[in-house]
Amino acid sequence: MLVRSRAGRYAVWALFLVLFLPLFALPLAVIVAASFAGRWSGALPSAPTLAHYATATRGDALDALTTSLVTAVVASLLALVVGTWAALAAEGLGPRGRRVVDALFVLPVAVPSVVVGLCLLVAFSRPPFLLNGTRWIVILAHTVLVTAFAYQSVSAAVRRLDPAFAQAAAGLGARPFTVLWRVRLPLLLPALGAAAGLCFALSMGELSATMMLYPPDWVPLPVLVFSATDRGSLFTGAATAVVLLVTTLLVLLGLSRVRTRASYR
């Protein structure tokens, strides 16, 4: 640890608990408690029930969960491809060119996501690119919003790569594509796994731009959580939020195992 003294370590742990408990642990515990509550008229919930989870795992909620998973997977893959390509391409530019590319990819997250949604709504509401009212505009919005994080993660890893590996492969007669596919991308696998997990998690929880764009037949789960709480079904909304959280964590756990194996390779 950076803090070597015992008193300093205790102080760091105490500060961590003071910040973690009220800001993260307590709100999460309240949501989990509300998801099992039949009533909550006092300090603690009462009449525990699983009925809210039955509602949150079937019918429209199950369809919304599937929609969120498909949207997040497709958007993450697209963001990973575009972000990786841009990071590798920017590495060959000079410092000024890299700064320009960095600024272009950071721009979508530098403005509110609702502005990104409005821009896409205006841009794709007329032919020849008529996407308004389709699922593709939702996937496009998620891709635009998470690509910046994929680009930044991969770009940081590209700058840390030792060029000697690629130079040795090229010196042995490997073509540029072979160097990329057999040398550089395998070295980037841990960063690609981290970027994929980050993009997936962000896409699963995205709401602002989605609220402006989603069609009736493509409703992601965060929209359903918002709708449930907006009409007063707080306990059902809490159960749906827990389902969203657990699903995201399970996928991230699987990605972390893949990333760990890639690191060992």
Describe the structure.
By secondary structure, the chain is mainly alpha-helical. The protein has a single domain (19-35, 47-264), classed as MetI-like (MetI-like fold, Orthogonal Bundle), CATH 1.10.3720.10. Helix content is 78%, strand content 0%.
What key phrases describe this protein's structure?
single chain, 265 residues, mainly alpha, MetI-like fold, 12 helices, 0% strand, globular
Mean pLDDT: 87
Number of strands: 0
Order of H and E elements: HHHHHHHHHHHH
3D shape: globular
CATH class: Mainly Alpha
End-to-end Cα distance: 27 Å
Layout of secondary structure:
Layout (H helix, E strand, L loop, with lengths): L5 H31 L14 H6 L3 H32 L3 H16 L2 H11 L11 H26 L2 H9 L4 H12 L1 H17 L2 H6 L7 H10 L3 H31 L1
Helix pairs in contact: 1-12, 3-6, 3-9, 3-11, 4-6, 5-6, 6-9, 7-8, 9-12, 11-12
Short description:
This protein is an all-alpha fold and 265 residues long. Helices cover 78% and strands 0% of the residues.
